[in-house]
Amino acid sequence: xxxxxxxxxxxxxxxxxxxxxxxxxxxxxxxxxxxxxxxxxxxxxxxxxxxxxxxxxxxxxxxxxxxxxxxxxxxxxxxxxxxxxxxxxxxxxxxxxxxxxxxxxxxxxxxxxxxxxxxxxxxxxxxxxxxxxxxxxxxxxxxxxxxxxxxxxxxxxxxxxxxxxxxxxxxxxxxxxxxxxxxxxxxxxxxxxxxxxxxxxxxxxxxxxxxxxxxxxxxxxxxxxxxxxxxxxxxxxxxxxxxxxxxxxxxxxxxxxxxxxxxxxxxxxxxxxxxxxxxxxxxxxxxxxxxxxxxxxxxxxxxxxxxxxxxxxxxxxxxxxxxxxxxxxxxxxxxxxxxxxxxxxxxxxxxxxxxxxxxxxxxxxxxxxxxxxxxxxxxxxxxxxxxxxxxxxxxxxxxxxxxxxxxxxxxxxxxxxxxxxxxxxxxxxxxxxxxxxxxxxxxxxxxxxxxxxxxxx
Length: 457
What we know:
Oligomer: single chain
Low-confidence stretches: 1-35
Strand content: 5-15%
InterPro entries: Met_g_lyase_put, PyrdxlP-dep_Trfase, PyrdxlP-dep_Trfase_major
Strand order of the largest sheet: 4-10-9-8-7-5-6
Distance between the termini: 39 Å
Protein name: Aluminum resistance protein
Radius of gyration: 23 Å
């Protein structure tokens, strides 16, 4: 047999260290040993760890964090499985449809039902026709807001791609909320990067129609919000104006905790299927979930008033991946969380500021690293691209991207274009030149990538 070893150091959390073996197999002393068959069982060989020493040391220290992630994955997998069973999912649901989608075999309805149950919502609409998280969020906001209403962002500035949707940045008359007479305010973050609870206490007015909460950090150097933080914010908002609707941008947060925002009072959430809930295999799509009347209104913005949720075709090969990707999501999110722990541990050990800090609780899958210079940011992204399974031979180039105010560089050698549930990173070319890392089908992928990164920064 062959033995895979991290030489003299453990390179894997201790709870994974014992391989299955029969009673007569020899005992081999190492904390990272995987039994591999060879032609000559009497002369085992050793395959040394593919990780650089910094990664080996970091993984050794993350035993309890990795174990906690495994427990989270088990919990979330159980509730996803239960939702699939309750919807009585069968192979006929994967058949898809064409044209108007009127002859659809029930997959659309079943998928909506599953999403609603998983997220604790009254209903949901899950469609391949949402082509990004921004698109799904936009449909939700336009469903809620009318001329003269006020939108209040309670977690500081929204993500860059929402600035033109809201009208914070000029949309050149293309139909932002501001163009339609919707007013906008935002509550700045506190000095520690979290919600400013003192300001929030008096921020909601009688005319505030919707409070927008962005769960993830976006391109801001701030804390991502826990569901507990979101619950506290919702209670504070509703205490000031019980009619104010709460909309949560749920991108990057799905399955990172054991509960979701609708379970603590959010009226509506929205997100993308090429992020967490697509399980790395959904090729496109997004979702809106929450109160039934609000989901129906968002569906009318995606389609048209009177059409709602009962239309829209999805090819069968796509429909199957939406179901399968959702089932895989808890596991894929778990691996991304482990990857974020590893990035933080290694980069912090090299003197870089990281957000979240090493071993801190995770509330989304994003790990930010402040690199300090344009050159380091470019080098980091180039190293990630070189280490990717797709387009590893290309060099990412910073440039203008639709929806972004600053130049942005993306490293995404992914199977699904733009997928951030797969291993990827990106960042705006502006101070403090931070890179935002996310995704990964297994934590070991980030372990390998970090070795390449450490060569160049």
